Protein backbone atom coordinates (compact mmCIF):
# COMPACT_ATOMS: atom_id res chain seq x y z
CA UNK A 1 0.00 0.00 0.00
CA UNK A 2 1.52 3.26 -1.16
CA UNK A 3 4.53 1.71 -2.89
CA UNK A 4 3.33 2.97 -6.27
CA UNK A 5 1.96 -0.26 -7.73
CA UNK A 6 -0.88 1.40 -9.62
CA UNK A 7 1.11 4.44 -10.79
CA UNK A 8 4.04 2.28 -11.90
CA UNK A 9 1.63 -0.19 -13.49
CA UNK A 10 0.16 2.63 -15.59
CA UNK A 11 3.64 3.68 -16.72
CA UNK A 12 4.53 0.08 -17.59
CA UNK A 13 1.30 -0.32 -19.50
CA UNK A 14 2.15 2.73 -21.61
CA UNK A 15 5.74 1.59 -22.21
CA UNK A 16 4.84 -2.00 -23.09
CA UNK A 17 1.52 -1.47 -24.84
CA UNK A 18 0.00 -4.14 -22.58
CA UNK A 19 -3.25 -3.48 -20.70
CA UNK A 20 -3.14 -2.82 -16.97
CA UNK A 21 -5.40 -4.81 -14.68
CA UNK A 22 -5.61 -3.43 -11.14
CA UNK A 23 -6.93 -6.09 -8.76
CA UNK A 24 -8.65 -3.55 -6.50
CA UNK A 25 -10.40 -1.85 -9.45
CA UNK A 26 -11.33 -5.29 -10.81
CA UNK A 27 -12.91 -6.25 -7.47
CA UNK A 28 -14.67 -2.88 -7.12
CA UNK A 29 -16.23 -3.32 -10.56
CA UNK A 30 -17.34 -6.91 -9.83
CA UNK A 31 -18.75 -5.99 -6.42
CA UNK A 32 -20.17 -2.63 -7.53
CA UNK A 33 -18.71 -0.79 -4.53
CA UNK A 34 -15.41 0.65 -3.32
CA UNK A 35 -12.81 -1.36 -1.43
CA UNK A 36 -13.52 0.78 1.64
CA UNK A 37 -17.25 -0.01 1.41
CA UNK A 38 -16.45 -3.69 0.90
CA UNK A 39 -14.29 -3.76 4.05
CA UNK A 40 -16.96 -1.91 6.04
CA UNK A 41 -19.94 -3.99 4.90
CA UNK A 42 -18.52 -7.48 4.31
CA UNK A 43 -15.20 -7.47 6.15
CA UNK A 44 -11.60 -8.44 5.54
CA UNK A 45 -12.20 -12.17 4.99
CA UNK A 46 -14.72 -11.52 2.24
CA UNK A 47 -12.38 -9.07 0.52
CA UNK A 48 -9.50 -11.56 0.72
CA UNK A 49 -11.74 -14.20 -0.90
CA UNK A 50 -12.37 -11.78 -3.78
CA UNK A 51 -8.60 -11.34 -4.17
CA UNK A 52 -8.27 -15.12 -4.40
CA UNK A 53 -11.01 -15.21 -7.05
CA UNK A 54 -9.08 -12.55 -8.98
CA UNK A 55 -5.87 -14.62 -8.87
CA UNK A 56 -7.76 -17.66 -10.14
CA UNK A 57 -8.87 -15.69 -13.22
CA UNK A 58 -5.55 -14.05 -14.16
CA UNK A 59 -4.76 -16.59 -16.87
CA UNK A 60 -8.12 -15.95 -18.55
CA UNK A 61 -6.76 -12.68 -19.98
CA UNK A 62 -4.24 -11.98 -22.74
CA UNK A 63 -0.77 -10.77 -21.63
CA UNK A 64 -1.08 -7.82 -19.28
CA UNK A 65 0.43 -5.82 -16.43
CA UNK A 66 -1.10 -6.56 -13.02
CA UNK A 67 -1.19 -4.20 -10.07
CA UNK A 68 -2.36 -5.99 -6.95
CA UNK A 69 -3.49 -4.85 -3.55
CA UNK A 70 -0.73 -5.09 -0.93
CA UNK A 71 -2.42 -7.85 1.05
CA UNK A 72 -2.98 -10.24 -1.84
CA UNK A 73 0.15 -12.17 -0.85
CA UNK A 74 -1.26 -13.12 2.56
CA UNK A 75 -2.94 -16.13 0.95
CA UNK A 76 -0.45 -18.91 0.07
CA UNK A 77 -2.56 -19.93 -2.93
CA UNK A 78 -2.38 -16.36 -4.28
CA UNK A 79 1.39 -16.34 -3.85
CA UNK A 80 1.72 -19.54 -5.84
CA UNK A 81 -0.68 -18.41 -8.58
CA UNK A 82 1.10 -15.09 -8.97
CA UNK A 83 4.52 -16.76 -9.16
CA UNK A 84 3.34 -19.19 -11.84
CA UNK A 85 1.50 -16.56 -13.87
CA UNK A 86 4.33 -14.18 -14.71
CA UNK A 87 7.19 -12.11 -13.38
CA UNK A 88 6.46 -10.74 -9.93
CA UNK A 89 8.14 -7.55 -8.72
CA UNK A 90 8.25 -6.54 -5.06
CA UNK A 91 8.34 -2.74 -4.80
CA UNK A 92 10.27 -2.67 -1.52
CA UNK A 93 9.57 0.60 0.27
CA UNK A 94 10.26 1.42 3.92
CA UNK A 95 7.42 2.01 6.39
CA UNK A 96 8.71 5.58 6.93
CA UNK A 97 8.43 6.46 3.23
CA UNK A 98 5.02 4.77 2.94
CA UNK A 99 3.67 6.66 5.96
CA UNK A 100 4.87 9.98 4.48
CA UNK A 101 3.29 9.21 1.09
CA UNK A 102 -0.08 8.35 2.58
CA UNK A 103 -0.04 10.80 5.47
CA UNK A 104 -3.36 12.38 4.47
CA UNK A 105 -5.03 9.43 2.76
CA UNK A 106 -8.62 8.65 3.79
CA UNK A 107 -9.20 5.98 1.14
CA UNK A 108 -7.21 3.19 2.79
CA UNK A 109 -9.33 1.19 5.25
CA UNK A 110 -6.34 -0.35 7.03
CA UNK A 111 -4.81 3.08 7.72
CA UNK A 112 -7.82 4.64 9.39
CA UNK A 113 -7.15 2.98 12.73
CA UNK A 114 -4.25 4.91 14.26
CA UNK A 115 -0.65 5.97 13.75
CA UNK A 116 0.18 5.40 10.07
CA UNK A 117 3.88 4.69 10.69
CA UNK A 118 3.07 2.00 13.28
CA UNK A 119 0.46 0.49 10.96
CA UNK A 120 2.96 0.38 8.08
CA UNK A 121 5.62 -1.07 10.35
CA UNK A 122 3.24 -3.81 11.43
CA UNK A 123 2.14 -4.51 7.83
CA UNK A 124 5.78 -4.58 6.75
CA UNK A 125 6.71 -7.02 9.52
CA UNK A 126 3.79 -9.27 8.59
CA UNK A 127 4.13 -9.16 4.80
CA UNK A 128 7.80 -8.61 3.94
CA UNK A 129 8.76 -12.29 3.98
CA UNK A 130 5.78 -13.16 1.76
CA UNK A 131 6.75 -10.47 -0.74
CA UNK A 132 10.32 -11.78 -0.82
CA UNK A 133 9.12 -15.37 -1.15
CA UNK A 134 6.77 -14.49 -4.03
CA UNK A 135 8.83 -11.98 -6.00
CA UNK A 136 11.09 -12.92 -8.86
CA UNK A 137 12.69 -9.46 -8.49
CA UNK A 138 12.95 -7.03 -5.57
CA UNK A 139 13.10 -3.36 -6.53
CA UNK A 140 14.30 -0.97 -3.81
CA UNK A 141 12.08 2.09 -4.20
CA UNK A 142 12.85 4.55 -1.39
CA UNK A 143 15.09 6.80 -3.50
CA UNK A 144 13.68 6.16 -6.98
CA UNK A 145 10.96 7.96 -8.88
CA UNK A 146 8.02 5.96 -10.23
CA UNK A 147 9.31 6.65 -13.73
CA UNK A 148 12.75 5.24 -12.85
CA UNK A 149 11.15 2.17 -11.30
CA UNK A 150 8.97 1.60 -14.36
CA UNK A 151 12.04 1.88 -16.61
CA UNK A 152 13.93 -0.62 -14.45
CA UNK A 153 11.07 -3.12 -14.41
CA UNK A 154 10.59 -2.71 -18.16
CA UNK A 155 14.28 -3.43 -18.76
CA UNK A 156 14.02 -6.62 -16.70
CA UNK A 157 10.61 -7.87 -17.81
CA UNK A 158 10.90 -7.14 -21.51
CA UNK A 159 14.48 -8.07 -22.37
Rg over alpha carbons: 15 Å
Number of strands: 4
CATH-assigned homologous superfamily? P-loop containing nucleotide triphosphate hydrolases
* Share of β-strand residues: 5-15%
The biggest beta sheet reads: 2 strands, parallel
Q: How far is the first residue's CA from the last residue's CA?
A: 28 Å
Quote the CATH topology.
Rossmann fold
Textual characterization of the structure:
With 159 residues, this protein is mostly helical. It has a single domain (5-157), classed as Rossmann fold, CATH 3.40.50. The chain has helices at 5-16, 23-31, 35-57, 76-85, 95-101, 116-134, 146-157, and strands at residues 20-22, 65-67, 89-92, 137-140. It has a two-stranded parallel ribbon with strand order 1-2. Strands 3-4 form a two-stranded parallel sheet. It is globular, with a radius of gyration of 15 Å. The two termini are 28 Å apart. The mean pLDDT is 90.
